[in-house]
Amino acid sequence: MRGDRRAVWLLIVAGLLLAARGWLADHPQHDPWAPLDLRDPPGWATRTKLLSLKDDPVECRAVLERSGVAFRTLDQAGEGACLRADRTVLSDLPLSPQVPPATCAVGVGMELWMRDVVQPAAQARFGSEVARVEHFGAYSCRRLYGRSEGRWSEHATGNAIDIGAFVLDDGRRIGVLQDWDGEGEEAAFLRAVRDGACDFFATVLSPDYNAAHADHFHLDQAGRYSGVCR
After folding, report:
1. Most-buried pick from 4, 186, 189, 202 (CB within 10 A)?
2. Which residues constitute the domain of residue 122?
3. Residue 200 · residue 227 · CB < 8 Å
4. CA distances from 119 to 88, 135, 144, 192, 229 (A)
5. Contacts of 132 (CB under 8 A, 6+ apart)
6. C-alpha triplet 229, 102, 106: angle, nearest 5°
7. Which residues 6+ apart lie within 8 Å of 30 measured at CB?
8. Any domain includes 82
9. Contact yes or no for 135/95 (Cβ under 8 A)
10. Quick one: average pLDDT of 97-108?
11. Which tens digit of pLDDT belongs to each residue from 111-120?
Protein backbone atom coordinates (compact mmCIF):
# COMPACT_ATOMS: atom_id res chain seq x y z
CA MET A 1 0.00 0.00 0.00
CA ARG A 2 2.81 2.39 0.93
CA GLY A 3 4.57 1.62 -2.34
CA ASP A 4 1.38 2.33 -4.27
CA ARG A 5 0.99 5.73 -2.62
CA ARG A 6 4.59 6.57 -3.37
CA ALA A 7 4.13 5.64 -7.01
CA VAL A 8 1.01 7.82 -7.21
CA TRP A 9 2.86 10.79 -5.73
CA LEU A 10 5.76 10.31 -8.13
CA LEU A 11 3.33 10.29 -11.04
CA ILE A 12 1.69 13.47 -9.75
CA VAL A 13 5.06 15.22 -9.35
CA ALA A 14 6.18 14.06 -12.79
CA GLY A 15 2.93 15.33 -14.28
CA LEU A 16 3.34 18.70 -12.61
CA LEU A 17 6.91 19.02 -13.85
CA LEU A 18 5.86 18.16 -17.39
CA ALA A 19 3.01 20.65 -17.19
CA ALA A 20 5.35 23.36 -15.88
CA ARG A 21 7.84 22.62 -18.63
CA GLY A 22 5.13 22.86 -21.25
CA TRP A 23 3.79 26.09 -19.79
CA LEU A 24 7.26 27.67 -19.81
CA ALA A 25 7.74 26.58 -23.41
CA ASP A 26 4.58 28.49 -24.28
CA HIS A 27 5.60 31.48 -22.12
CA PRO A 28 9.37 31.97 -22.66
CA GLN A 29 9.23 35.44 -21.09
CA HIS A 30 8.86 33.70 -17.71
CA ASP A 31 11.58 31.08 -18.36
CA PRO A 32 14.99 32.18 -17.03
CA TRP A 33 16.72 29.67 -19.34
CA ALA A 34 14.94 30.65 -22.56
CA PRO A 35 16.83 33.00 -24.92
CA LEU A 36 15.58 36.56 -24.65
CA ASP A 37 13.42 37.65 -27.58
CA LEU A 38 12.21 41.24 -27.50
CA ARG A 39 9.08 40.28 -29.41
CA ASP A 40 7.84 38.39 -26.35
CA PRO A 41 5.83 40.35 -23.76
CA PRO A 42 7.66 41.19 -20.51
CA GLY A 43 7.66 38.37 -17.98
CA TRP A 44 9.10 37.25 -14.66
CA ALA A 45 12.54 36.60 -16.13
CA THR A 46 12.77 39.61 -18.46
CA ARG A 47 14.45 42.06 -16.06
CA THR A 48 17.15 39.59 -15.01
CA LYS A 49 17.89 38.77 -18.65
CA LEU A 50 18.08 42.44 -19.54
CA LEU A 51 20.52 43.27 -16.75
CA SER A 52 22.74 40.34 -17.72
CA LEU A 53 23.32 41.92 -21.14
CA LYS A 54 25.33 44.82 -19.71
CA ASP A 55 28.55 42.81 -19.59
CA ASP A 56 27.87 40.73 -22.69
CA PRO A 57 27.50 42.91 -25.80
CA VAL A 58 27.92 39.89 -28.08
CA GLU A 59 24.87 38.20 -26.57
CA CYS A 60 23.04 41.53 -26.51
CA ARG A 61 23.51 41.94 -30.24
CA ALA A 62 22.42 38.34 -30.74
CA VAL A 63 19.19 39.29 -28.92
CA LEU A 64 18.66 42.19 -31.32
CA GLU A 65 19.23 39.95 -34.33
CA ARG A 66 16.92 37.28 -32.93
CA SER A 67 14.26 39.91 -32.31
CA GLY A 68 14.45 41.52 -35.74
CA VAL A 69 15.60 44.90 -34.39
CA ALA A 70 17.67 47.02 -36.79
CA PHE A 71 21.02 48.13 -35.41
CA ARG A 72 24.59 48.90 -36.35
CA THR A 73 27.83 48.75 -34.42
CA LEU A 74 30.65 51.27 -34.33
CA ASP A 75 34.33 50.77 -33.56
CA GLN A 76 35.38 51.24 -29.97
CA ALA A 77 36.50 54.68 -28.90
CA GLY A 78 38.00 56.45 -25.91
CA GLU A 79 40.48 55.12 -23.40
CA GLY A 80 40.94 54.38 -19.72
CA ALA A 81 37.76 54.78 -17.67
CA CYS A 82 36.04 56.22 -20.74
CA LEU A 83 36.82 53.34 -23.07
CA ARG A 84 33.68 52.60 -25.09
CA ALA A 85 34.10 49.02 -26.22
CA ASP A 86 30.37 48.69 -26.96
CA ARG A 87 28.97 51.36 -29.29
CA THR A 88 25.63 50.22 -30.65
CA VAL A 89 23.03 52.29 -32.51
CA LEU A 90 19.41 51.12 -32.77
CA SER A 91 18.48 52.72 -36.07
CA ASP A 92 14.71 52.95 -35.63
CA LEU A 93 14.47 54.54 -32.18
CA PRO A 94 12.68 57.92 -32.52
CA LEU A 95 15.38 59.87 -30.71
CA SER A 96 16.16 63.49 -31.52
CA PRO A 97 18.37 65.07 -32.69
CA GLN A 98 19.69 61.61 -33.68
CA VAL A 99 20.14 58.18 -32.16
CA PRO A 100 23.37 58.36 -30.12
CA PRO A 101 25.80 55.44 -29.85
CA ALA A 102 25.27 53.77 -26.48
CA THR A 103 25.79 50.34 -25.03
CA CYS A 104 23.67 47.61 -26.56
CA ALA A 105 21.97 47.09 -23.19
CA VAL A 106 20.80 50.72 -23.14
CA GLY A 107 19.46 50.30 -26.66
CA VAL A 108 17.51 47.19 -25.70
CA GLY A 109 16.05 48.98 -22.69
CA MET A 110 15.00 51.90 -24.89
CA GLU A 111 13.40 49.58 -27.43
CA LEU A 112 11.24 47.86 -24.82
CA TRP A 113 10.44 51.05 -22.91
CA MET A 114 9.22 52.81 -26.02
CA ARG A 115 7.12 49.87 -27.17
CA ASP A 116 5.64 48.67 -23.89
CA VAL A 117 5.45 51.87 -21.84
CA VAL A 118 5.87 55.17 -23.68
CA GLN A 119 3.70 54.57 -26.74
CA PRO A 120 0.82 52.89 -24.85
CA ALA A 121 0.86 55.68 -22.24
CA ALA A 122 0.75 58.37 -24.94
CA GLN A 123 -2.13 56.66 -26.74
CA ALA A 124 -4.08 56.17 -23.52
CA ARG A 125 -3.71 59.75 -22.28
CA PHE A 126 -3.49 61.82 -25.47
CA GLY A 127 -4.81 59.61 -28.26
CA SER A 128 -1.55 60.19 -30.13
CA GLU A 129 1.74 58.35 -30.49
CA VAL A 130 5.13 59.81 -29.60
CA ALA A 131 6.83 60.98 -32.79
CA ARG A 132 10.19 61.71 -31.22
CA VAL A 133 11.98 61.68 -27.89
CA GLU A 134 14.38 64.52 -27.16
CA HIS A 135 17.55 63.49 -25.35
CA PHE A 136 20.62 65.17 -23.86
CA GLY A 137 23.03 62.50 -25.02
CA ALA A 138 24.43 59.18 -23.89
CA TYR A 139 28.21 59.67 -23.74
CA SER A 140 30.12 62.09 -21.54
CA CYS A 141 33.60 61.25 -20.24
CA ARG A 142 33.13 62.46 -16.68
CA ARG A 143 32.74 61.43 -13.09
CA LEU A 144 29.39 61.64 -11.30
CA TYR A 145 28.03 65.20 -11.32
CA GLY A 146 31.21 66.41 -13.05
CA ARG A 147 33.33 66.05 -9.90
CA SER A 148 37.12 65.91 -10.11
CA GLU A 149 37.27 62.65 -8.15
CA GLY A 150 35.04 59.77 -7.13
CA ARG A 151 33.04 57.23 -9.08
CA TRP A 152 32.76 57.51 -12.84
CA SER A 153 29.37 58.20 -14.37
CA GLU A 154 27.71 55.51 -16.48
CA HIS A 155 27.75 58.18 -19.20
CA ALA A 156 31.55 57.80 -19.32
CA THR A 157 31.10 54.58 -21.28
CA GLY A 158 27.79 55.43 -22.96
CA ASN A 159 25.93 53.10 -20.63
CA ALA A 160 23.27 55.73 -19.89
CA ILE A 161 20.99 58.18 -21.66
CA ASP A 162 19.23 61.35 -20.48
CA ILE A 163 15.68 61.97 -21.72
CA GLY A 164 14.32 65.53 -21.73
CA ALA A 165 10.99 65.57 -23.57
CA PHE A 166 8.45 63.73 -25.69
CA VAL A 167 6.87 65.21 -28.83
CA LEU A 168 3.57 63.72 -29.99
CA ASP A 169 2.42 63.11 -33.55
CA ASP A 170 0.01 66.02 -33.16
CA GLY A 171 2.87 68.38 -32.26
CA ARG A 172 2.34 68.63 -28.51
CA ARG A 173 5.58 68.65 -26.51
CA ILE A 174 5.74 67.18 -23.01
CA GLY A 175 8.93 68.22 -21.23
CA VAL A 176 10.29 67.05 -17.91
CA LEU A 177 11.32 70.55 -16.84
CA GLN A 178 8.03 72.31 -17.58
CA ASP A 179 5.50 69.55 -16.97
CA TRP A 180 6.76 67.38 -14.12
CA ASP A 181 5.27 69.55 -11.37
CA GLY A 182 1.93 70.05 -13.08
CA GLU A 183 -1.38 68.44 -12.20
CA GLY A 184 -2.65 67.57 -15.66
CA GLU A 185 -2.28 64.66 -18.04
CA GLU A 186 1.24 65.72 -18.97
CA ALA A 187 2.54 65.25 -15.43
CA ALA A 188 0.66 61.96 -15.08
CA PHE A 189 2.18 60.75 -18.36
CA LEU A 190 5.70 61.63 -17.23
CA ARG A 191 5.27 59.73 -13.98
CA ALA A 192 3.84 56.74 -15.79
CA VAL A 193 6.75 56.51 -18.21
CA ARG A 194 9.26 57.10 -15.39
CA ASP A 195 7.76 54.25 -13.37
CA GLY A 196 7.60 51.98 -16.41
CA ALA A 197 11.26 52.57 -17.21
CA CYS A 198 12.17 50.83 -13.98
CA ASP A 199 11.21 47.49 -15.54
CA PHE A 200 13.83 47.86 -18.27
CA PHE A 201 16.70 49.85 -16.76
CA ALA A 202 18.93 49.22 -13.75
CA THR A 203 18.76 52.86 -12.66
CA VAL A 204 16.05 55.45 -13.29
CA LEU A 205 16.44 58.97 -11.88
CA SER A 206 13.92 61.80 -12.26
CA PRO A 207 13.22 65.22 -10.66
CA ASP A 208 12.08 63.27 -7.58
CA TYR A 209 15.70 62.21 -7.06
CA ASN A 210 17.48 65.56 -6.85
CA ALA A 211 17.74 69.01 -8.42
CA ALA A 212 20.40 67.84 -10.88
CA HIS A 213 17.67 65.82 -12.62
CA ALA A 214 15.05 68.59 -12.69
CA ASP A 215 14.98 68.65 -16.48
CA HIS A 216 15.51 65.02 -17.49
CA PHE A 217 15.22 61.31 -16.76
CA HIS A 218 18.52 59.49 -16.35
CA LEU A 219 18.33 55.87 -17.53
CA ASP A 220 21.27 53.48 -17.24
CA GLN A 221 22.18 49.80 -17.21
CA ALA A 222 24.71 49.80 -14.40
CA GLY A 223 24.08 46.13 -13.65
CA ARG A 224 22.74 46.74 -10.15
CA TYR A 225 20.10 44.07 -9.66
CA SER A 226 18.56 46.07 -6.82
CA GLY A 227 18.53 49.29 -8.80
CA VAL A 228 17.30 52.79 -8.03
CA CYS A 229 13.90 53.90 -9.31
CA ARG A 230 13.07 57.42 -8.23
Report:
1. 202
2. 51-229
3. no
4. 23, 17, 31, 11, 20
5. 94, 95, 96, 166, 167
6. 35
7. 24, 43, 44, 45
8. yes
9. yes
10. 96
11. 999 999 999 9
**Domain assignment present for 37:** no
**Bridge partners for 163 per DSSP:** 135, 217
Q: Is residue 24 part of a domain?
A: no
CA distance 205 to 212: 10
Residue 153, C-beta contacts closer than 8 angstroms, at least 6 positions apart: 140, 142, 143, 144, 145, 160
**Number of separate domains in the chain:** 1
111 by Cβ neighbours in 10 Å (0-12 / 13-18 / 19+) ranks as buried
**pLDDT per position as a tens digit, 27-44:** 567 798 899 999 998 888
| C-beta separation of 82 from 141 below 8 A | yes
Question: Does the residue 5 lie in any domain?
Answer: no
pLDDT at 9 over 60: no
Q: What is the pLDDT of residues 57-91, one digit of tens each?
A: 999 999 999 999 999 999 999 999 999 999 999 99
Q: Is 102 helix (H, G, I), strand (E, B) or coil?
A: strand
Q: Let me know if 23 is exposed, middle or buried by CB neighbors in 10 A (0-12, 13-18, 19+).
A: exposed
pLDDT surpasses 90 at 95: yes
Question: What backbone phi and psi angles, to 5 degrees, belong to 202?
Answer: -70, -35
